Amino acid sequence: MSVEAAASLAAAFNAHSPALLAFGGDSTIELISAVLVLWRFRGHEISETTKRRVNRVAGALLFLLAAYVAVVSTLSLLGHREPKPSYLGIAMLVVAAITMPILAHERGNYQQRLQVPRSGRMLLSRHSAAIFR
Asked: N or C: the chain end with fewer CB closer than 10 Å?
């Protein structure tokens, strides 16, 4: 995930691509969230206040990313910044299109093995499973 984030952000800045910027920014925010979840699963206790703060920061970062991408996209559409072709971006799209459905399927299998109740699954897991199945 860190390679994906770094590569897509590098490709976004080189190509002036709002789409790659959104992909890389989202990957970066997901990476930060995953590190926090991993830290918590490793036995570190987090207070409810800290959990709420982390959720708010992640949400705020996503909204800021969306606003930034909207501004950059508008500038691009108005002709102020024209995106250039990015072979790295194309390669990342191909890799993501192949691997994402496989990962979504495996995540569903893993949840079944852990006997996670259907009502307890994350909305994102169900959403991605519905898209890729």
From this structure: C
Q: Which amino acid is at 69?
A: V
Single out the residue in 67, 84, 101 at which a domain terminates. Answer: 84
The parent domain of residue 108 ranges over: 86-133
What is the number of other CB atoms lying within 10 angstroms of the CB of residue 65? 17
What percent of the chain is predicted at pLDDT more than 70?
Answer: 83
pTM for the complete prediction? 0.67
Angle ∠(13,59,118) on CA atoms, nearest 5? 115
- pLDDT range class, residue 84, cuts 50, 70, 90: confident
Report which of 8, 1, 2 is spatially closest to residue 24, judged by C-alpha positions: 8
Q: Are residues 51 and 110 in the same domain?
A: no
Compute CA 1 distance to the chain's CA centroid, rounded to the nearest angstrom. 9
Helices of type H across the chain: 2-15, 18-41, 48-77, 87-113, 123-132
Q: Which of 17, 11, 7 is nearest to 81 (CA)?
A: 17
Asked if 102 and 65 sit in the same domain, the reply is: no
